[in-house]
């Protein structure tokens, strides 16, 4: 395989003068007219949309990538502060419902170029081979129309482009990482110590933070603000890993452009472009192909808002599949108290993980499993953890003054996909006059059993490390599904190549196409699926 | 403020601001201003909100953080968290409705405004909402009301640099970063906890 730089020069296109944005590259960016019929218009510049844009721009396609949010400049737009990072999240109105409603916003929804990877922790594990065939193996979830083997080369390619640092990985399909593991801070040290004492294997990584310089990206400074956007350019997000190379190959990134509707020619049945709003003005970008990459809430919402005479119940929704099987991971977070000072705010929150409990264990009453990782909440999120124990007033203050003594672990439990966990349109409208998304979520028995089991293991690890008190908060993490891939249109919205069954020149290339989620953070898999879709497009079409 | 300020003697986060990048420093130091204009809450709502937030955060005395004003500023800008529960209105309306309900509880139980009740009475009224758990309070799910209050109050309070001094957190870390990471390791600008055995449970 060629060197990373030959395939994707993004890291070398960033400045090396201490600033973080190549303003010249952006100023010189190609700009298409709305009336130009571009080869591809991409909706959303997050993990999926950015990779697709970069790959096809490299292939000579004329690509315009629209994003509802800003084209970030880390120097100017991001701060080393929790509350001041509120604008990194998608905070347009949404309604949450069901017996176990899932908070959105800061928990799982990004905005702007780079998407949710701007504020993700940075964990980039692969899915396990079993994740692609949970139905065959365990009669739960769904089988993908592609296998782990189909995705493996794309995992390897993306791991080099981010790049990912970590120890040799013994779980799933065992593999190594391009960069050595990072040194760990107090929280990672506690996890490693506790796991060793409890007889559990834990490893450092996998984290999409270069260990050492990478191109013109500097070394991590271990400041602990990964979730607030990396001002250093050390943590990978598409803003710095794929967009610069896309621009250098003639793609346009059109920020602050909210796509409101996909247009389909009622006679040919083909997509002709997208309606969008920029600076308050309604526009229409013509395109030969359309790829939607708005993530698991906005992608279904856009399809449902693109209803027409041919698609009265929403675009691509002939079989009532749009918005369904939306998944979150159960993410209980357990903290332990130590007399020593842990100071978990130092070093990146993603440090150490174990996937020892990832697979179905026949000795257990539940199917599938969970992973455990360090999470290192900053004061505001830590206050939420403490307040969840019921503490308030003087008691809350006393607990909070003890912050430096706590270590915190988080689990990712594989909640199973369910048809009624879905996005529909609410009666309420946003400032564009469009119905907002309503996300309904309810847990199943298997889900609840996994949460309990994961909490028990985290408590065991922390106690084994010497913790006194342990406290837990029930949370959710990540989003995938909502427009899943399947073998046929009765069971999903897109095929294995991310092409919609209903409209031959309409693609969906984001996390919403994933049929299962495993216990892995989804970013790497979303990128790998998009990279594969791009390869298929380059090979077949045009 | 007050309470636990002495666990980290001499630790003064705002005094470190020269080590912060200018964009972050602007955002963080702006929170230290005492100039507070209310634009969202009515005066009656303001009175209930100010006391509620101070009680939730154990604030007494003259140097209190103006938490209700910080919440007012967020609500005036409709800076929500990006979601609302189907059985509660959007955050601004939910705040108005819950403050009115708390006022109503105070007048029924004690014949006077919430802000004029004794601290003990205020705390009992607040505790009664928490104790309802998943049950309804004035037609609203009490647990979600509790979550709304504590979420907004804690987000404002633990964003304040003086409160970081109280908990030993150095705040902004760019471009300085950390060099000494690991258990019981401190960077030169961090201060050791003077009362490390002050486990809240002991």
Structural overview:
Chain A is an alpha/beta fold. Helix content of chain A is 25%, strand content 17%. In chain A, the strands form five sheets. In chain A, strands 4-12-13-14-11-17 form a six-stranded antiparallel beta sheet, sandwiched between helices. In chain A, helix 4 packs parallel to helix 15 and helix 7 (148-161) packs across helix 15. The longest helix of chain A is centred in the last third of the chain and has 20 residues, at 445-464. Chain A is globular. The mean pLDDT of chain A is 97. By secondary structure, chain B is mainly alpha-helical. Chain B has a domain at 33-159. Chain B contains seven helices and three strands, in the order αααβααββαα. Chain B has a two-stranded antiparallel sheet with strand order 2-3. In chain B, helix 2 (43-56) packs across helix 3 (67-76). The longest helix of chain B has 20 residues, at 91-110. Chain B starts with 21 loop residues before the first helix and ends in a 35-residue tail after the last helix. The interface between A and B is large, with 75 and 65 residues. Strand 3 of chain A pairs parallel with strand 1 of chain B.
Shape of chain B: globular
Tally of separate helices of chain B: 7
Mean pLDDT across all amino acids of chain A: 97
Please name the two chains that share the biggest interface, counting residues whose Cβ lies under 8 Å from a Cβ on the partner chain. Answer: A-B, 75 and 65 residues
Oligomer: heterodimer
Strand content of chain A: 15-25%
**Mean pLDDT level of chain B:** 95
Q: Unreliable stretches of chain A, pLDDT < 50, 5 or more residues?
A: none
**Structural class of the helix and strand makeup of chain A?**
alpha/beta
Put simply, the count of helices of chain A is 15
**Beta-strand segment tally of chain A:** 19
Structure class of chain B: mainly alpha
The neighbouring-strand order within the major sheet of chain A is: 4-12-13-14-11-17
User: Can you count the beta strands of chain B?
Assistant: 3
The description of the largest β-sheet of chain A is:
6 strands, antiparallel
| Percentage beta strand of chain B | under 5%
State the end-to-end distance of chain A.
Answer: 25 Å
């Amino acid at each position: 395989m060629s060197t990373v730089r030959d395939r994707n020069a993004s890291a070398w296109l960033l400045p090396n003068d201490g600033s973080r944005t190549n303003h010249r590259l952006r100023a010189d960016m190609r700009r298409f007219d709305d009336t130009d019929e571009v080869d591809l218009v991409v909706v959303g510049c997050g993990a999926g949309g950015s990779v697709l844009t970069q790959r096809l721009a490299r292939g000579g396609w004329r690509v315009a990538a629209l994003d509802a949010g800003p084209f970030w400049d880390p120097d100017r737009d991001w701060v080393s502060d929790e509350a001041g990072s509120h604008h990194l999240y998608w905070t347009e109105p949404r309604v949450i419902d069901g017996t176990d409603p899932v908070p959105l916003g800061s928990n799982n929804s990004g905005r702007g170029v780079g998407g949710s990877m701007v504020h993700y922790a940075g964990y980039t594990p692969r899915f396990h081979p079993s994740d692609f065939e949970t139905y065959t193996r365990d009669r739960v979830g769904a089988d993908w129309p592609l296998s782990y083997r189909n995705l493996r080369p794309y995992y390897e390619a993306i791991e080099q482009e981010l790049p990912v640092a970590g120890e040799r990985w013994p779980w799933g399909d065992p593999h190594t990482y391009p960069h050595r593991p990072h040194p760990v801070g107090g929280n990672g040290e506690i996890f490693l110590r506790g796991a060793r004492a409890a007889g559990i294997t834990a490893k450092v990584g996998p984290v999409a933070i270069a260990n050492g310089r990478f191109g013109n990206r500097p070394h991590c400074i271990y400041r602990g603000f990964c979730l607030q956007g990396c001002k250093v350019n050390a943590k990978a997000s598409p803003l710095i890993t794929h967009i610069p190379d896309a621009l250098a190959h003639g793609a346009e990134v059109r920020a602050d452009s909210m796509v409101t509707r996909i247009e389909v020619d009622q006679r040919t049945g083909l997509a002709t472009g997208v309606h969008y709003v920029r600076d308050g003005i309604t526009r229409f970008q013509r395109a030969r192909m359309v790829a939607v990459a708005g993530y698991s809430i906005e992608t279904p919402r856009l399809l449902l808002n693109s209803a027409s005479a041919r698609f009265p119940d929403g675009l691509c929704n002939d079989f009532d599949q749009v918005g369904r099987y939306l998944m979150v991971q159960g993410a209980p977070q357990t903290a332990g108290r130590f007399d020593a000072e842990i100071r978990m705010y130092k070093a990146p929150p993603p440090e150490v993980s174990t996937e020892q409990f990832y697979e179905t264990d026949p000795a257990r009453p539940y199917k599938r499993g969970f992973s455990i990782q360090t999470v290192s909440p900053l004061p505001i999120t830590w206050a939420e953890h403490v307040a969840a124990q019921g503490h308030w007033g003087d008691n809350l203050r006393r607990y909070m003054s003890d912050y430096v003594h706590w270590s915190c672990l988080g689990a990712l439990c594989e909640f199973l996909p369910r048809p009624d966990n879905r996005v529909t349109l609410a009666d309420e409208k946003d400032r564009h006059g469009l119905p907002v998304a309503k996300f309904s979520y309810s847990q199943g028995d298997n889900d609840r059993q996994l949460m309990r089991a994961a909490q028990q293991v985290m408590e065991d690890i922390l106690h084994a490390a010497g913790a006194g008190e342990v406290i837990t908060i029930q949370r959710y993490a990540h989003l995938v599904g909502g427009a899943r891939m399947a073998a046929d249109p009765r069971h999903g919205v897109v095929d294995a190549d991310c092409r919609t069954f209903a409209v031959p020149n309409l693609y969906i290339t984001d996390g919403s196409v994933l049929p299962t989620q495993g216990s892995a953070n989804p970013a790497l898999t979303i990128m790998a699926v998009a990279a594969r879709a791009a390869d298929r497009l380059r090979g077949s079409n045009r | 403020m007050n309470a636990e300020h002495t666990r980290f003697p001499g630790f003064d986060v705002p005094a470190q601001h020269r080590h912060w990048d200018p964009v972050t420093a602007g955002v963080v130091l702006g929170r230290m201003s005492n100039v507070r204009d209310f634009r969202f809450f009515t005066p009656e709502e303001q009175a209930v909100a100010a006391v509620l937030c101070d009680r939730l955060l154990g604030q007494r005395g003259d140097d209190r953080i103006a938490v209700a004003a910080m919440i007012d500023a967020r609500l005036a800008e409709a800076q929500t968290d990006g979601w609302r529960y189907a059985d509660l209105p959007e955050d601004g309306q939910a705040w108005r409705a819950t403050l009115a309900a708390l006022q109503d509880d105070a007048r029924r139980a004690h014949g006077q405004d919430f802000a004029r009740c004794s601290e003990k009475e205020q705390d009992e009224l607040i505790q009664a909402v928490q104790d309802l758990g998943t049950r309804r309070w004035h037609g609203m799910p009490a647990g979600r009301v509790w979550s709304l209050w504590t979420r907004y109050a804690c987000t404002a309070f633990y964003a304040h640099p003086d409160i970081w001094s109280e908990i030993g957190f150095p705040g902004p870390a760019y471009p300085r970063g950390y060099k000494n990471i690991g258990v019981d390791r401190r960077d030169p600008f961090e201060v050791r906890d003077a009362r490390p055995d002050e486990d809240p449970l002991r």
